[in-house]
Amino acid sequence: MRILVLGGTGYLGRHVAERLRALPGAQVLAAGRSAGAGLGADLARDRPQRLAETLAAAAPDAVVNCAGATGGDPVTLAEVNARGPAALCAALSAAAPAARLVHLGSAAEYGPGTPGVPVTESAPACPVAPYGATKLAGTLAVTSAALDAVVLRVGNPVGPGAPAASLPGRLAALLRAAGRDPQAVLRLGDLSAHRDFVDVRDVARAVERAVTAPAPLPKVLNIGGGAAVPVRELAHGLARQAGFRGRLEESAGGSARSARVSWQCSDISAAARALDWRPAHSLDDALAALWAATGERVP
Q: Disulfide-capable partner of 4 in 60, 83, 104, 186 (CB 3.0 to 4.6 Å)?
């Protein structure tokens, strides 16, 4: 089975590619903008005809799109998260219409949740910021295409390799720098929001299931931990993993999105039915793996 992974050098993409390489008989090809990608492909810039040529050369049985932008100005977000999936679908329709497409979406597409009510795939999508809006546009491009395609709406991924721009990655770097100094004070923003955290390795396993499951699959499946957890618990849990003896100090300020989306939790029962998938790792597992990997990266 030939599997093309777009964005395979990114945070999610690295874990996905590693998981897929363990499949018996799988040949995993990487494509993207970075020098480490085997095939050159830029979903934000390449015309569909150019992407179709890349797909034809790869001749994939399945394509996994892990490419995406989580930060940047609205134009960048739109180019990568909205234009990219639309161009990919057009190219697939022309060059590899029989290939299965697994596209990674985001729970940010839903917008604010109702406390105590996990959101299902049929809930209205009401994103509150450009990131969620552009991810939703990408999802609509995939679900409206005449392809064998599924969108995995991923919660907040946590685990080894978390990028420095994310709260887990940034906090891990701060904790590593602080060491075990009992006088250390780490100042963070408001940590009162609730999020659905999911181990990045569980996300990769969900992708594997989506690639290999028999057709047809639902158009959209939620992939999360299935619980709303205060961000404060993540911060203090990672501090425990680090043996931090100082103090975490919250400020009243924080991101605008956290203020507008104070509670999120995904109903993951559809993924259990369609993919026989459930999260295997707890948040503590994810934080332990994140901290261990941070130690490996630091001399």
A: 60
pLDDT 10s digits, 148-165: 999 999 999 999 999 998
137: left (phi over 0), alpha (psi -120 to 50) or beta: alpha
195 HSE (CA, 13 A, CB side): 26
Distance, in Å, from the CA atom of 198 to the CA atom of 277, rounded to the nearest integer, reads: 13
- Cα distance between the two ends of the chain: 39
The single residue of 13, 16, 20, 131 carrying the catalytic annotation is: 131
Q: What's the total number of domains in the chain? A: 1
Is the entire prediction scored with pTM above 0.70?
A: yes
Residue 110 located in a structural domain: yes
Domain of residue 206, residue span: 2-158+199-224+267-272
pLDDT in tens, 109-136: 999 999 999 999 999 999 999 999 999 9
